[in-house]
C-alpha cells in the first residue's frame, strides 16, 4: 500500500531535521546526511510504496522500513487508502471527523476505521433534557449509526435556557419524540428509536440493552437513579458515561465493566463513613432537599460535549477513557479547572464485586 506523510512542516537545521506536526511541540530528528529530509520530500510529492521510496532514494527496502517505523511511531504516517471511507458522499459528510482522527491515526490505526466504528455503534441515551439534548446533537454529529433515546418529559418554556433541540412550536410535545425527529432531519442515515418511558429501576432498562455498545446521559428524579443505571449496565457488560451538575460543579464519570470500579462501589464505601463534610451532609439528607436546577445553556453544552467525548473514547478506542472509575469535576468557582476523584472501591460490591 502507498504511504502518505501527514500534514506537517519541516526544516533542516545543521545535522538535524526539525518537524512540526502539532503546534505544541517540535520533533527533532538526526539527519547528518540529509536522507531524512529527502524521504520527507519524496513522501510529500505523492503517496509511495516502500519499494518505490527505496528506488527513488537509492537505499535498501530494509532501510526504508526502519525509517517508516520511526516516523510511524511519531504519528507522522498513514496509508493513503485508509484516509477515506471510499464513498465520496460519506467522505464529505465525515470530512471533519476524518480530519480529527488523522491526529491519532497511523499505519496500523486507520482514521477511516474509527469513523466506521462510530457508524456501526449503538448508543442508549438516557435523558434528552439538559445535558442530554447537547449529547444527542454531539453523537449525531459524530455519525453514531444507531441511537435509542429514552425520556418521559414534555417540552416546556423553561427548557429553552439550555435545551436547544426544541422550539416554541414543540411546547407540550414529548421531548424524546421531538429529539428523534431532530436526528432524522439532521442525518437520515442514523437509525433512531424513541422510548417514552419512566425509569424506576434497573429492570426498566433490560429490554433496551440488546445490541447496545454504550449507555450515555443521566436520569433526573430519584436520588438512586444513577445506581439503577450502573447496575443494569454492569450486569450487561455495557460501559456507561454519565454527566451532571451540582450547584457549583459540572461533573462526569464513566464505568468500564470488568475493568473499573463502579458507582455502587463508591456509594457502598461512602455510605459506611461518618462524613462531616458538606458533601456528606448533602448525601445523607438528599431526599429531604429540593434543589432548583441551575443548569444554563453553556454548562449544559459542556456536560453534553464531555460525555460525548468520553463516549467517543469507548466507541472507537482512539485513546483510553479518562473518567473510568472516577468523577471528573469542573469547579465553576475555579474557572472550570478539572479535578479527578477516583471512586472508592468496595471488594464485596454487590454489583461488580470489584
Automatic annotation (TrEMBL):
UniProt keyword annotations, A-Z: Nucleotidyltransferase, Transferase
Whether Ligase counts among this entry's keywords is no
GO molecular-function annotation terms? nucleotidyltransferase activity; thiosulfate-cyanide sulfurtransferase activity; ubiquitin-like modifier activating enzyme activity
Q: Does the keyword Ion transport apply?
A: no
Which InterPro entries does the entry mention?
ThiF/MoeB/HesA (IPR045886), ThiF_NAD_FAD-bd (IPR000594), Ubiquitin-activating_enz (IPR035985), WH-like_DNA-bd_sf (IPR036388)
Quote a single Gene Ontology cellular component term: cytoplasm
Q: Which Pfam families has this protein been placed in?
A: ThiF (PF00899)
The signal peptide stretch is none
Q: Which domain of life is it from?
A: Bacteria
Chain ranges of the THIF-type NAD/FAD binding fold domain: 114-350
Protein name (database record): Molybdopterin/thiamine biosynthesis adenylyltransferase
Name the source organism. Nonomuraea muscovyensis
Upper classification of the source organism reads:
Bacteria, Bacillati, Actinomycetota, Actinomycetes, Streptosporangiales
